[in-house]
Amino acid sequence: MEWTExxxxxxxxxxxxxxxxxxxxxxxxxANIVGNVHGGTILKMIEEAGGIISTRHCNTxxxxxxxxxxxxQQDRCVAALARVERTDFLHPMFIGEVAHVSAEITYTSKxxxxxxVIVLAENILTGAKKVTNKATLWYVPFSLQNVDKIIEVxxxxxxxxxxxxxxxxxxxxxxxxxLETKERNGEIINPVVSPEAYTxxxxxxxxxxxxxxxxxxxxxxxxxxxxxxxxxxxxxxVAARHCKTNIVxxxxxxxxxxxxxxxxxxxxxxxxxxFTSNKSMEIEVFVDADPLVEAARGKYRAVTAFFTYISxxxxxKPLSVxxxxxxxxxxxxxxxxxKVRYLxxxxxxxxxxxxxQ
Length: 357
Hints:
It contains 6 helices and 12 strands. By secondary structure, the protein is of the alpha+beta class. It starts with a helix and ends with a helix.
């Protein structure tokens, strides 16, 4: 029995190692005033690659086989971003470099897909390449016919039982963390009148964005990458207001997408400083959605995350960060929580460094 080219392509999508790559040259509107590409631009490209490969995979005919390659009736779907694990910005990317974003599916549960992404920056004049980012994203497929219906994900094959078990551990860990972050969803950022320099109120910032068709998927819901780009912009403003220097994204702790944002909503993206070390700043960012047409639904918390920034001098070398002035017990509590995250991440980076030696 001979397979058609389409059938061979379809079955290859069910095997671990399916890849997707996109490339784009970085232009002036992708970067800040000194030529560093915005972290939000890179996050948006990462999500685009992840969204393509996960949507493609979830629309494969998983019921077909070598013995019966006939197509199976399937509910078509689009994969929506549910979570981005901690992402470190390993090296800066600059205007004129080409970003190569490679995505691979590494685990599937019944209703979710894990995608791992690597970003390379290429200097097309010299041919030199460097890894700038590594990220792990989780997607959930929703039916095109019924946006509230989650589709079952086609399984992938693993090279070993251990590989599947490791994927299951990652799935369980991120599921638990998502539940824990929902406890913070009631918090709001209130404006401060005449704040003192280097306080939380002095640098806190927000922006408002009306969700249009170009921001959305086939479902009419906002692309995760669009939301992350807005979050990075606000976090960058907070960091710049605090330091008054050139700042760049150093890392993003897990971004949790709690609820979908629909076309026509007004989104409010708010950020505040929570912690400073000698060379870095942690900024907490909230995204709230306000449905204009369906006003009865009310405003709701859609996305939360922590961004870490560093301050740079004119030569691109790290500068010391002004200490954050804490004015009340709530700010002190958030500062101590940020310090715990900072020390945990520092220990993880050190352990990873030692493991690679």
